[in-house]
Amino acid sequence: DGAFLYATSDIATVKFRLHTYDVNRLIYLTDERQQDHFKQFFRITEMLGWNVEKYHVWFGIMRFADGVFSTRKGNVIRLEELLDEGKRRAYEIVQEKNPSLPEEEKQHIAEVVGVGAIKYADLSQNRQSPIIFEWDKILSFEGNTAPYLQYSYARVQSILDKAKNLGKEATEDVVLVLQDKYERSLANYMTIFPSSVLKAAETCKPNLIADYLYDLSKKLNSFYNNCPILNQEEEILKSRAYLAKQAGEVIKQGLSLLGIQTLDRM
Q1: What is one process in the GO biological process aspect for this record (predicted)?
Q2: Residue 175 to residues 115, 164, 171, Cα–Cα distance (Å)
């Protein structure tokens, strides 16, 4: 009679993708309530002989601190409204911290920080856990948040600018001198960035990248606190500045993989 179910639409879509695009992996992204549907759907495709790799990436439901988003209850925030609110709140923080910045720059910082905070609040969570959405938490400059990571990157750029003004720029030909345990800890941790990204891709868990970046930023701040940069002899200054520069580049690249921008100053 022409009637169809979600499953029949999904089956037809698999057939189309296999024949049209010759795919070797299919990833389906939904919330946790669709798990049974995809178990049944995947079994049907196996019975049809379509043995392409299929992966259901399910995620927990996002909630307010006082309950679940619900269309029927009317407590749903539209994405456009969510992003606008994030930018508005971020602007208030920028205005408080750096009121002397040009207005255009304050607006740009607010957009990058506000949108980044929302993305990171989602992607930094174990996707199979419920997400509690709290503005004060996601916009904090402390803890595992986008603003904390973005500030860590901006702090690196500030130090590099000061080193450059001293005529001691961190160039590629610098010889690293890793005498302190904090220097070695930071340098060693940067070497596992590629494997962290690979594991995140294989498991479809972007929070593994977020966890890595947060740990890296903590190591970077420990390095700052224990290994002065600008008031050192030239060899040590250049070495430490270059180490900080590379850590900043890893933070920038990692955030980029999460769709989040960085700023040279905040």
Answers
A1: arginyl-tRNA aminoacylation
A2: 38, 17, 10
Helices assigned H by DSSP within the chain: 6-21, 35-47, 79-97, 103-123, 135-138, 146-165, 181-190, 193-203, 207-226, 234-257
CA distance 233 to 159: 15
Could you say which DSSP state residue 176 is in? P
Q: Confidence class of residue 202 from pLDDT cuts 50, 70 and 90?
A: very high
Site of tokens 């250049």: 238
Residues sharing a CB contact under 8 Å with residue 42, sequence separation 6 or more, in sequence order: 54, 56
pTM to 2 decimal places:
0.87
pLDDT of residue 72: 55
| φ, ψ dihedrals at 26, nearest 5° | -120, 130
pLDDT in tens, 32-71: 999 999 999 999 999 999 989 999 999 988 777 766 565 5
Mean pLDDT of the chain: 92
Tokens 């520069």 belong to 245
Across-strand partners of 132?
Answer: 63
